[in-house]
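Hi again,

Forgot to attach this to my earlier email, sorry! This is the prediction with YH5 bound. I've pasted everything inline since the attachment limit keeps bouncing my files.
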Amino acid sequence: MSNRIVQLLNQQRPIVMGILNTTPDSFSDGGDYLSASNALDHAQQMIAEGADIIDIGGESTRPGAQPVALEDEINRVVPVISEIRNNSEIAISIDTSKPEVMRAAVAAGADLVNDVNALRAESAVETCAELAVPVCLMHMQGEPRTMQHSPQYENVVEDVADYLQQRMQACVQAGIKKERIIVDPGFGFGKTLAHNLSLLKHLDALQALGLPLLIGISRKSMIGAILDAEVDQRLHGSVAAAVLAFTRGAKIFRVHDVKPTVDALKVCDAMSNAQ
Ligand code: YH5
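Structure tokens for the complex follow:
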């Protein structure tokens, strides 16, 4: 049995994941995509712009965000996943840390579990092994409510690599195949601007893990801090960051602005395939 994500990863080209948020407090999407039919419109727009994966999240993990109740999270994401799956063959990712949401989302048609908590919740690893679904393991220091208070590392690149290696081993031990694991340094999750920039500069060090690298920098505060720009003025900086990450081995790009990123990565891919 194959899987849409496994098929995408077998292609030797950059993969774009478009962010579709269903959280009411999400200011990037302004709460405009709350209903499943609006979500479908947004997904279809991103598909037309060249997205390979649609990432759906029902829990805000932004700095300072409060946790969302299980039932609310399921009620937000399941109708959206069903609506997209009933209308499209696009790969769907569920951005969650809760095993119950993982189950409901995969039953509704999700192809990838994207967990900012790297499957550390009780029974999350076992659930994904049982569902036989590819997973994205992201590094985070602390928890969303407090993670930006005073992040500290011995060596941010080594610490993140060690953590991802450990989480990968926990997954493999539970029976998740290595071909189904993606890793992500977690830009902005318990990191200062200096930490984020070191991770971007030395992203190639994470290639030693031998797993596809996913990065999410789109519109984040590291771009805002560098540019001194509000969230609606971070497009060009976000595209520059994606290009830099490509040069250091990133494979999957989680973004809000699909078309500009797809175009930039087509140029990157063309150069990388030249003599
Ligand atoms: C990620 O990096 N991030 S949710 C603050 C912003 C803009 C965007 C305006 N889920 C990641 O997108 N999953 C999120 O400032 C993620 N990697 C993976 N794998 C946070 C987010 C955002 C936060």
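The beta strands are 15-21, 53-57, 91-95, 112-115, 135-138, 181-184, 214-215, 252-255. The chain has one domain: 3-272.

That should be everything now.

G.
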